[in-house]
Amino acid sequence: MFKIVKREQFSPVTYLWKLEAPDIAKAAQPGHFVIVRHGDGGERVPLTIADFDRQAGTITLVIQAVGKTTTALMGLKEGEYLDDLAGPLGHARHFDKLKKVVCVGGGLGVAPTYPQLRQYKQNGAHTISIVGFRSKDLMFWIDRFKAESDELIIATDDGSFGVKGLVTGPLQEVLDKNPDVDEVLAIGPAIMMKACVAVTKPRNVKTIVSLNPIMVDGTGMCGGCRVTVGGKMAFACVDGPEFDGLQVDFDELLARAKRFDPFERESMRRFREQHQCHLPK
Description:
Layout: E1 2-9, E2 14-20, H1 22-27, E3 33-37, E4 45-48, E5 51-53, E6 58-64, H2 68-73, E7 81-82, E8 84-89, E9 100-106, H3 110-122, E10 126-133, H4 142-148, E11 151-156, E12 163-164, H5 168-177, E13 183-187, H6 190-200, E14 206-210, E15 226-229, E16 232-235, H7 236-239, E17 242-244, H8 250-257, H9 261-275
Parallel strand pairs: 9-10, 9-13, 10-11, 11-12, 13-14
Antiparallel strand pairs: 1-2, 1-7, 2-6, 3-4, 3-8, 5-6, 14-17, 15-16
Helix pairs in contact: 5-6
């Protein structure tokens, strides 16, 4: 049982948990993820660790309610307990001594970008951050990014805050102005990461991407997160979750990511039916 010591709602569908998990907090590193499960027969959900505090013995997860399970989990309140939490899993990032890096976070991907940005900064790198949201109402952790970034660019799809448009526009401008960038980190929806690689690949800039969004089981047993990297098969959960983005076959990845869509829609439909009011009007 893992206590939710803090809960925060960022938007109607995005929420934060700070969980009491001292053993996981002690071992966690940027890039690690955990498996969350709650309730009898509950689905296993892989979630990237967004922050950790070894002294307090806590880890932070930022979750988006996109399906039946993450929507159901949103109902848990501060002070309640989560049944199961396994981790840290995956390979932690190895951080080279770099002079200048660009960290790009899109939507929910802003959360797992943060601990890596912090580590780059602690290692002495000049950090340029680009964070993107659909609108101003969905923004979160801007103060954290300001604290760890030498330069911060905010983009919103609708132009309600910062630069109007996708993160790829600012990324292209940053790379044009900074040909000495050593590395780009891009975390967000798969289509966003593919678009970022399309900007960095012609410049041959090393680009790290996180493939957590395609995980299912999180332990390599289901084979659902198979991905081709550099012409070879890999599993996002046990070989990653982070890879050289210039080597990832994103077209294959995006096609595979859609295979569960009909099942997820049906599961969500049944969940909503179970939770609607059936009393006569």
